[in-house]
Amino acid sequence: MFRVHCNKCSRRRDVEPTIPFQLTRCHHIICGPCLTVCAAEKKCPMCEHPLQTIAISRDMPIGVANYFQDPTKFLQLYRKISKFQSEQRSSDNLHFWRREQQHEELQLKLNGYTKMEAQLNQQTKVEKKRIAELREYIAFHERPAVDSLEASLSSSEYIAARGRSNSRHGLRPRTPSENPTTDNTLSDDLVESFCMHSEVDFGTKKSKHSISTSTHRSSVRNSGGQRQDFQI
Fold this sequence. Notes:
Layout: E1 21-24, E2 29-31, H1 32-38, E3 53-55, H2 62-65, H3 71-141, H4 144-152, H5 155-169, H6 188-196, E4 217-221, E5 227-231
Antiparallel strand pairs: 1-2, 1-3, 4-5
């Protein structure tokens, strides 16, 4: 701690406690007599800046009173503040890193869902086309005229009649294949990536989607009277 004294005439406050001392805005200490001499000029006698002062007493504002405190007190406070802020910065950096990791995991999962959605949409489009073909095929062979022909005509007559029927009602629809024309199995990498980053347990890494079509059999008797099966 320093001794309070006038920067102009060196009077000490502890020696002459009855003399008032003032602290200027430019951080100079001036005693009452020196301040009276320079009051007319309204300039600091030390640096000639505009004169603005405050009385040095116990009633000084805390911001001014701190200039007269022991600096080691503020050094300890600085260390506590510095440690506290350093810990808070470390905590904030840790939470930011965790959020970045979570964002990367969610982005990877989203990419897996997006790829799976695209592949499933493609499979759905193919299956809808196959279902339409199956319905057309079933509707063609469930017509009453075809059933009556199968029961009454011989093989050669049935074929000729079916040809005439096709000319009237349109061509006979193509026989759908029993197996899908495309591989509807999800790729191993895609399903494995999806299972790794989802909470759903699929049991296996592959899920095959296939539609089994029932075989329509027609039986007619040939000219020799023998029963003959046709698989369509």
